[in-house]
């Protein structure tokens, strides 16, 4: 990107009622609406609404141990 293009402020078109003089249209510069010529192709709200990556949530999986014995009493290997 050329240095002179990067040094210019981003001027976004504003889609609303046009009360600007001939040759100008409503634009939004850093959230302020005024008359001018936009140098961006999308509106300010579209630029702020970029998709955010979804955060993955990992739940801890715990093994649930029963307080009751899993084998019948009197069975070989049961220690209760």
User: Structural class, from secondary structure content?
Assistant: alpha+beta
What is the makeup of the main sheet? 3 strands, antiparallel
C-alpha geometry: rod-shaped
Mean pLDDT across all residues, rounded? 80
Give the count of helical stretches. 2
Helix content: 10-25%
Unreliable runs = none
Q: Kindly report the spatial arrangement of strands forming the biggest sheet.
A: 1-2-3
Strand content: 15-25%
Return the string of H and E elements: HEEEH
Gap between N and C termini, in Å?
76 Å
The gyration radius over C-alpha positions equals 32 Å
Give the total of beta strands. Answer: 3
Characterize the structure shown:
The protein has 80 residues and is α+β, with helices and mostly antiparallel strands. It contains 2 helices and 3 strands, in the order H-E-E-E-H. The protein has helices at 3-7, 44-48, and strands at 12-13, 25-29, 32-36. It has a 3-stranded antiparallel beta sheet with strand order 1-2-3, with no helix packed on it. Strand 2 (25-29) and strand 3 (32-36) form a beta hairpin. It is rod-shaped. The relative contact order is 0.16.
